[in-house]
Amino acid sequence: MVTQSKPPQPMRRVDFAKRLRENFAAVWIDRISSFGTFPLECMKSGTIPICLKPDIMPEYMIERDEKGEPVKAIEGAGLWTDSYYDLPTLAGEVLVKFLDDNISDGAYEKMDEVVADFNQVNSEKKLVQIYTSLLSKRTALLENAVNPQQ
User: Fold this and answer.
1) Which of 43, 64, 79, 126 could form a disulfide with 111 if both were Cys (CB 3.0 to 4.6 A apart)?
2) Rounded to 5 degrees, what are φ and ψ at 7?
3) Are residues 111 and 129 in the same domain?
4) How many angstroms separate the CA atoms of 59 and 36, rounded?
């Protein structure tokens, strides 16, 4: 997406979200990002993400068991591929399904399910957990340095 200004100017987040919502699909080809918010932004706006799998699969795309161990990649939340060469084919398939009004409601429901955990409240809780854990470890390390156990 490019703004209408010449030269292109950065977009406000709200404008970006509105523009993203106007699309039926978007392509993400970043192999470096191990999290990547763009697919989440797509899913949240109802835009189907067509993504090149990064070297490290994003956490939100991994299904885990009750112990927290990874089980498999979540299916149905966008299209993910290992090959650059698959991207045009996938985009074409999504376009045909979109024009034929043949994209299932289940696809949109799955995307909503994936992004449900990514909101301000849950983000704040997770950050508090992370920093509390870091501070606890640092405090324990300092206490052991001051009062070594014999």
Assistant:
1) 43
2) -70, 160
3) no
4) 10
End-to-end Cα separation, the chain, in angstroms: 63
Domain holding 78, by residue range, is: 13-118
Cβ neighbours for 57, distance < 8 A, ≥ 6 positions apart: 73
Coil, helix or strand for 62? strand
Q: Domain check: are 33 and 100 in the same one?
A: yes
Does pTM surpass 0.85?
no
Write the CA distances from 31 to 17, 35, 44, 80, 142, integer angstroms. 23, 10, 21, 12, 39
Q: At 101, which amino acid appears?
A: D
Q: Determine what percent of the chain falls in helix, strand and coil, rounding each to the nearest 5.
A: 50, 15, 40
**52 touches 28 (CB < 8 A):** yes
pLDDT of 15-73, one tens digit each? 888 989 999 999 999 888 878 889 999 999 999 999 998 888 888 888 888 887 877 77
